[in-house]
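Please decode residue identities from the backbone states below.
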């Protein structure tokens, strides 16, 4: 009996709370704010008024609970709105033109934790967002905002994740207001044509773990020492800028937790010495991905274990011989294409224990194609084109020592810059055993004979380059093999 009275009391309490909220649990003030936002989407556009089918569940009906509306998430206990997922609200309407959004309409949502307004092309003025004191995630990417919104962003002191990629602002001062966000862990401001940013101010974001400044117009020396106190940083992406000068190895030592470093497509130069490449990489014990492609680095590779799993040093001026390493540490992918490497292709490197992909095309390598590529147990991608390698393609190239599983996903053997040094002989029929291959390039060779009919059974193949001279009058391959003229 006593238990029944307790249950009855609890039920009555819940009913009272729900009635106190009004509108079936949805906070009235927050509900009106959401309806105001929806109405702002229906202002006359360049191609006429937008039809009333956006956010159809958002209706001005006292019996409609805004917590059940699409793109809205509420706290189950308080019924306050805590998340708005309003990305791509216009659903790529062909007649859409950007709408002016008054950011102050979100101020009544005082419990809001997540706000996503990305991919809308919104225009916005100086209306404040700073009153959203509990906001933790804000995504304004792919809009057409103006610089006047920046001061209010600096007032969102609870922010942990801020995404401003391609959001339309090209601030001359480089986001000075963001230095107040001491709890910020994730900052993405890529693709905004920024020419200058204060790394010193970014260095104040002591909680930062993710920083992406890629695809801007940053110029001048790379001042990594100004953010050296970001000891929690795990990902740093600075690719596709105009940063120049010499990379100072000592500036990287403070990033003890760094897992991804991308400095590709810049104007960095100088020798990667002293210590040669693997030695200073080894100091970054947590680093998994290192991308320094498309710069002007010089130097040589040594044969020490790499701590990284992915290494891209392509499109530089590295020289010397490829390291003859049977132990490359954790390294799984090496991209060294378009450098100045010379000498032969080391068998030990090809057969290193963890290596899955090796791209050394367009260097100055010479000598014979190693016969042992027919026995590789781990390598999945091998790109050798644009060198001066010669000899016949091993007939057993698809065989394995065990498991009878064809190894390669991609194999490029367009070997020679000189036709008299190119690979000769027929295309091995054993290539038909490459059952998982997706790309096969044999262009720029002196191969002869017919394409083996067995290759038509390779269901996943998408590219077979430079073999049109072998097709002859046999048209059976036209529908089953796509080839690329090079």
């Amino acid at each position: 009996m006593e238990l029944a009275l307790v249950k009855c009391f609890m039920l009555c309490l819940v009913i009272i709370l729900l009635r106190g909220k009004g509108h079936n649990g949805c906070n009235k003030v927050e509900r009106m704010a959401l309806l105001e936002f929806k109405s702002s989407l229906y202002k006359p556009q360049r191609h006429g008024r937008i039809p009333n089918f956006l956010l159809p569940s958002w209706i001005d009906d006292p019996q409609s609970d805004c917590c059940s509306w699409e793109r809205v998430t509420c706290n189950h206990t308080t019924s306050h709105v805590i998340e708005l997922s309003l990305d791509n609200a216009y659903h790529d309407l062909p007649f859409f033109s950007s709408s002016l959004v008054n950011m102050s309409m979100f101020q009544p949502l005082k419990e809001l934790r997540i706000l996503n307004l990305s991919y809308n092309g919104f225009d916005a003025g100086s209306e404040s967002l700073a009153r959203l004191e509990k906001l933790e995630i804000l995504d304004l990417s792919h809009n057409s905002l103006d610089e006047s919104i920046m001061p209010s962003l600096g007032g969102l002191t609870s922010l942990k994740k801020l995404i401003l990629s391609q959001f339309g602002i090209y601030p001359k001062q480089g986001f000075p207001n963001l230095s107040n966000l001491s709890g910020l862990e994730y900052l993405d401001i890529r693709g905004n044509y920024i020419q200058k940013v204060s790394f010193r101010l970014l260095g104040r974001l002591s909680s930062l773990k993710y920083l992406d400044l890629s695809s801007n117009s940053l110029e001048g020396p790379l001042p990594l020492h100004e953010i050296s106190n970001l000891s929690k940083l795990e990902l740093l992406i600075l690719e596709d800028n105009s940063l120049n000068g010499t990379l100072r190895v000592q500036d990287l030592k403070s990033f003890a937790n760094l897992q991804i470093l991308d400095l590709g497509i810049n104007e960095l130069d100088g020798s990667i010495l002293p210590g040669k490449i693997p030695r200073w990489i080894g100091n970054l014990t947590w680093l998994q991905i290192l991308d320094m492609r498309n710069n002007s680095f010089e130097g040589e590779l040594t044969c020490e274990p790499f701590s990284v799993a992915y290494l891209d040093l392509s499109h530089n001026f590295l020289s010397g011989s490829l390291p003859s390493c049977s132990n490359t540490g954790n390294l799984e992918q090496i991209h060294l294409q378009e450098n100045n490497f010379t000498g032969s292709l080391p068998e030990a490197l090809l057969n290193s224990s963890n290596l899955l992909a090796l791209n050394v095309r367009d260097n100055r390598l010479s000598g014979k194609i190693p016969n042992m590529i027919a026995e590789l147990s781990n390598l999945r991608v091998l790109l050798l084109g644009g060198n001066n390698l010669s000899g016949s393609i091993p007939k057993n190239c698809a065989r394995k020592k065990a498991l009878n599983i064809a190894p390669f996903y991609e194999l490029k053997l367009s070997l020679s810059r000189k036709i008299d040094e190119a690979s000769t002989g027929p295309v091995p029929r054993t290539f038909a055993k490459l059952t998982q291959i997706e790309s096969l390039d044999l262009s720029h060779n002196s191969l002869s004979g017919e394409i083996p009919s067995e290759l038509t059974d390779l269901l996943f193949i998408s590219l077979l380059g430079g073999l049109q001279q072998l097709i002859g009058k046999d048209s059976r391959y036209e529908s089953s093999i796509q080839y690329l003229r090079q």
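Observation: Residues 16-23, 399-407, 415-422, 459-486 have pLDDT under 50 and may be disordered.
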